[in-house]
Amino acid sequence: MEIMGDKIVRATAANGGIRLVAVLTTDASMEAKERHGLSYLTTSILGRAFSASLLLASSMKVMHGRVTLRVRSDGPLKGLLVDAGRDGKVRGYVGNPNLELDLVKTKSNQYSFDFTKALGTGYLNVIRDNGFGEPFTSTVELVNGNIAEDLASYLYHSEQTPSAVFIGEKIQNKNIISSGGLLAQVLPKKETDPLLVSLLEERCKEINSFSEDLFKSKDNLLSLIKNIFPDIDDKSISEKARTQEVRFECRCSRQRSLNAMKMLDKKELEDILIKEGKAELVCEFCKNKYLINSEEIKEMIKN
Length: 303
Description:
By secondary structure, the protein is an alpha+beta fold. The protein folds into 2 domains: about 5-250, Hsp33 domain (3-Layer(bab) Sandwich), CATH 3.55.30.10; about 255-300, HSP33 redox switch-like (CBS domain Like, Alpha-Beta Complex). It has 11 helices and 15 strands. It has helices at about 25-35, 40-55, 115-120, 150-160, 195-205, 210-215, 220-230, 240, 255-260, 265-275, 295-300; strands at about 5-15, 20-25, 65-75, 80-85, 90-95, 105, 110, 120-130, 135-140, 165-170, 175-185, 245, 245-250, 280, 290. It has a 6-stranded mixed beta sheet, with helices on one face. Strands 10-11-2-1-12 form a 5-stranded antiparallel beta sheet, sandwiched between helices. The longest helix is centred in the first third of the chain and has 18 residues, at about 40-55.
């Protein structure tokens, strides 16, 4: 029995030819919902972006590596920004947290959120930062705003890696009860092997509703992976390396807020002191508030 809570699980199949990563972001999505006052639609969108960025970050070589996903588009969501680490920590926000839209009917006669309308047309921008040298930035056009296909498009165009991406969520009694994603990739050294690519395609065709599969797996990500790839290389990765905790965590601090204030010029600081007498800085990522008092502002002006 797996411990509950958000996590990432890694595995390989086809003798190391296919890399599999599954992620659970239920708790992180609910925390973002509370912190930002998100609607159900925007909770789902942000949860999907959490899953996507963590799936991307999971392949980074260094533990301090980070992936930033930014959507710039003309839809009423007014864009989003998510920052995820190889260490499983994720944070993010959307431009219009209260957005709600009518549900749309899918091909399978189910009702679903209108991600396409929410995001509109625009671009997905992916920044990979290894912590040394210039971060690697890549931009692709949004396919349909459901994040999964947008991420698959990025992997295909920017990394030329045959990949399948599934991201979904289930909402019950006004709560997100499961949110997560799955990434299956033919590894670079094997990508010329047409058999592996067709195996990946065949297995992924068997997924009719990833959201349902995720919910039915009862948060057991390894069983979710095994349902799709029963022939995973079970002994290839140690349990410790295979499973990793995921959580919503912001990197903001009072010191960072003070540093941000110090970037203002003397005139701006004097204006704040005269008009407000203090400053309240709010972190966009997590809504934490930091109060800077008059004495601290005077000290900044003096220096």
